[in-house]
Amino acid sequence: MKCNVGGIDRTGRIVIGIVLLIVGVAVPLDMLWRIVVLAVAAIALVTGIVRFCPANALFGIDTCEREDKGGSPG
């Protein structure tokens, strides 16, 4: 899997995942909503940590910084 999640996108996913994880555990929600919130939290955290998102790959989105992005030196 090549990196397609980077920078602010990665940080945002991790922060949102942590916030949703706290909400899913601490806030009294219906069981269905708790499952939905925890699933979204897990997806956000995993995609932020592994730096790959299948949805980004499907739509051709790449926010990962690369050293060779600027072309050949010289």
What would you note in describing this structure?
The protein is mostly helical. It has one domain (7-65). Helix content is 62%, strand content 0%. The protein has 3 helices and no strands. The protein has helices at 7-26, 31-50, 54-59. Helix 1 runs antiparallel to helix 2. It is elongated, with a radius of gyration of 16 Å. The model has no long low-confidence stretch (mean pLDDT 89).
Structural class: mainly alpha
Overall mean confidence score, pLDDT? 89
The backbone outline, from C-alpha atoms, is elongated
Spans of at least 5 consecutive residues whose pLDDT stays below 50 are none
How many angstroms does the end-to-end distance come to?
A: 30 Å
> What is the ordering of alpha helices and beta strands?
HHH
Largest sheet: none
Please give the radius of gyration in angstroms.
16 Å
Number of strands: 0
Question: How many helices in DSSP terms?
Answer: 3
- Which range does the strand content fall in? under 5%
Q: Tell me the domain tally.
A: 1
Helical coverage, percent range: 55-70%
